[in-house]
UniProtKB/TrEMBL annotation:
Nucleotide-binding found in the keyword field: yes
Entry keyword set: ATP-binding, Nucleotide-binding, Transport
Coiled coil: none
Domain ABC transporter: 3-229
Organism of provenance: Kineothrix sedimenti
Gene Ontology molecular function, alphabetical: ATP binding
UniProt-listed SUPFAM superfamilies: P-loop containing nucleoside triphosphate hydrolases
Protein name per UniProt: ABC transporter ATP-binding protein
Amino acid sequence: MALEVKSLTKEYTRGRKIFRAVNHVSFTVCRGDFVNIVGRSGSGKSTLINMLACLLTPTEGSIEIDGLNVGDLQDKAASAYRNSKIGYISQGQSTLASLNVLDNVRVPFYLSKREGSPEKEARFLLERTGISHLADTYPKHLSGGEVKRIAIARALINQPDYVIADEPTSDLDVRTAAEIMKLFKEIAETGTAVVMVTHDLEALEYGNRTFVMEEGRLTERTIDGSLVG
Ligand SMILES: Nc1ncnc2c1ncn2[C@@H]1O[C@H](COP(=O)(O)OP(=O)(O)OP(=O)(O)O)[C@@H](O)[C@H]1O
C-alpha cells in the first residue's frame, strides 16, 4: 500500500510567462511513513500537496494511491475517494459556522454515508487535540489555533489511510504543536501515512523522512541534511 508520485508537474502562468511551481517531482510514500516537507515560501509545497489531495489537477505526471491513478478520477469520484481515504488539513481555516465543534469534526463521517454516529471517536479526537471543553461551542467564538485543531480532528475522523496536511501547527503554541505531532506519530505507527508541509523545524524529529522543496524540485534528506539517493 503506497502513494506513488511520478514526474508530477504543475505549471502556472504569471504575466505572459509559464513557470513550473512543481517540476517533475517523483517519490513514494509507504503506509506508516511520516514525511515532512520543508522549503522556502513559494517553493511549491502547497501546490504539491494540493495535487496529492486530489484538489488540484497536475499539468503532467501521475499520482497512484494504492494502485489507483487518482488523476483519472472525475470531480465527484475524486471527492468521494478523498473523503474515504485521505484526511486533508488545509493551510486556511475551514469550519462550518452553523455547526458546533463536535459536529464540525463529525461532518466527514456523515458525508461518507456510513451507519451510526462517531461520537466516541469524535470526543476522543477532541481530547487528543486539546479542545474537548469546546465540543458545544460554535466556530465564531474560537481562536485561530482552536479552529486549526477542529480541522485536524476532522481530518482523522474517518481513520484515513493517508493524512495530508499543510502547516497543521502554524497557529499553535509550542506545547500544543508537540501534542499534535505526537498524535500524528502514533497514527503513522498504526499504518497511516502522514505527509506534512511544515516550517516548524521541531516537527521534523517526529517524522521518519524529510524532503526539501526548492523552486519546484523535491529532494529527500537524511537527518544530518545530506541528500538521499
Ligand atoms: N493559482 C496560481 N496561479 C499562479 N501562480 C500560483 C498559483 N498558486 C500558486 N502560485 C505560485 O506558485 C508558486 C508556489 O506556490 P505554493 O503556494 O505552492 O508555495 P509554498 O511553498 O506552499 O509557499 P508558502 O510556504 O508561502 O505557503 C509561488 O510562486 C506562487 O506564487
